[in-house]
Specification:
Blueprint (H helix, E strand, L loop, with lengths): L3 E2 L9 H9 L19 H18 L5 E7 L1 H13 L4 E6 L2 H10 L4 E7 L23 E4 L1 E2 L4 E2 L11 E4 L16 E5 L9 E7 L17 H6 L9 H17 L1 H22 L4 E2 L10 E5 L3 H13 L2 E2 L10 E4 L6 H19 L2
Parallel strand pairs: 1-13, 3-4, 3-5, 5-8, 8-9
Antiparallel strand pairs: 2-10, 6-7, 9-10, 11-12, 12-14
Length: 361
């Protein structure tokens, strides 16, 4: 039996995609083998990776002067790869809105001068700071954000004013959840295990002029964007099976109507949950309303025992992985693209019952 999986990542994938992958497991389209078993240099695989890129380009309307790279090492490898490749002046500005942004900031400090130009740590990262007029460094190579904060459930609704500097964004947990204007960014990247595919693959979308030979001394070959761009993500063996699943999810997204349709679907889902949190006498959302994420919804009862009891009862009823991140406690429902609307409706019905049973309301 499949459960409603509210995990923050690795997370729920479209059932249709999983079924297709299962059907193709032993014999991919007459090749007589699984995608896991085939050469990444084969014709069959070449079509898989090329189609994946083409579909992603179509979904996000990625302009021709941006490269799409399918890399490995997860999102965290980019915390180092970005400064190694982009810190020409050895200066970068970081907006710290959560653990992932903080880790990226700390990693960048190993390679140059990383400036924390804004932070919301003073209120447990429960909001997005005003980024309309930040002290952007004159010689900053880029301004870095984590666009959707997976752990805290906040999202940048407007991008920061970078005063002309290159914007770099970690979109791991909001990847393909709504349309984006790629031209506003120099580099967009995300680990795919939140909204697109199996863990390990990281997709980097980077403007061509940012891909140069000029990287920090000592940068490993595998950490150079140029080597991967020049080799169309086939410099070495890529995470081939993971990319194949991502490709299937891209096709599924196209079938759903693309990113406009996803946004509508995600807004509808999130509204059901947020509306209930706003009226509940037991459950409360933890994030400033205007900064609420469509993907990750943290909430609490105010009592640690009751939180634990809720997580336990919910799991028994088939709503799993609702425990909040260990750094915040409480609960978190991650409602990525592949979470059906019924999953959220049924969760809210379950929460209402729980509220009635524990408050008499
Ligand atoms: C999960 C996550 C990461 C880390 O991803 P890994 O693939 O485990 O390295 C980084 N940034 C964000 C926003 C995330 O949600």
């Amino acid at each position: 039996m499949r459960v409603y999986n509210f995990s923050a990542g690795p997370a729920v994938l479209p059932e249709e995609v999983l079924k297709e992958a299962a059907a193709e497991m032993l014999d991919y389209q007459g090749s007589g083998m699984s995608v896991m078993e085939m050469s990444h240099r084969s014709k069959v695989y070449d079509k898989i990776i090329k189609d994946a890129e083409a579909d992603l380009r179509e979904l996000m309307q990625i302009p021709d002067n941006y490269k799409v790279l399918f890399l490995q090492g997860g999102a965290s490898s980019q915390f180092a790869m970005i400064p190694m490749n982009l810190m020409k002046n050895k200066v970068a500005d970081y907006i710290v809105t959560g653990q992932w942004a903080k880790k990226a900031y700390q990693e960048a400090a190993l390679y140059g001068k990383a400036n924390k130009i804004a932070s919301s740590e003073d209120e447990t990262f429960s909001y997005i700071p005003d980024c309309s007029d930040l002290p952007i460094s004159e010689d900053a190579d880029y301004v870095y954000i984590c666009e959707n904060n997976t752990i805290y459930g906040t999202k940048f609704k407007t991008l920061p004013n970078t005063k002309g500097k290159t914007l770099v964004a970690d979109v791991s947990s909001c990847f393909l959840s709504e349309p984006v204007d790629v031209t506003k960014y120099g580099l967009i990247y995300g680990g795919v295990q939140k909204n697109i595919g199996p863990a390990g693959v990281v997709i980097v979308i980077v403007r061509e002029d940012l891909i140069t030979e000029e990287v920090l001394p000592g940068t490993p070959t595998m950490f150079k964007y140029k080597i991967h761009a020049d080799n169309e993500s086939l410099y070495n063996t890529p995470p081939a099976y993971g990319i194949y699943i991502c490709g299937k999810v891209f096709k599924w997204l196209k079938k759903q109507g693309g990113l406009e349709a996803m946004k509508e679907h995600n807004e509808k889902k999130a509204k059901i949950l947020y509306d209930y949190l706003d009226e509940s006498s037991l459950f409360k959302g933890t994030v400033r309303k205007e900064d609420r994420s469509l993907m990750n919804v943290p909430f609490v009862t105010g009592s640690e025992e009751l939180d634990a009891e809720f997580v336990k009862e919910a799991a028994a009823a088939g709503f799993v992985n609702l425990k909040g991140h260990r750094s915040v406690g409480g609960m978190r429902a991650s409602i990525y693209n592949a979470m059906p609307i019924e999953g959220v409706e049924k969760l809210v019905a379950f929460m209402k019952d729980f509220e009635k049973n524990h408050t008499g309301a």
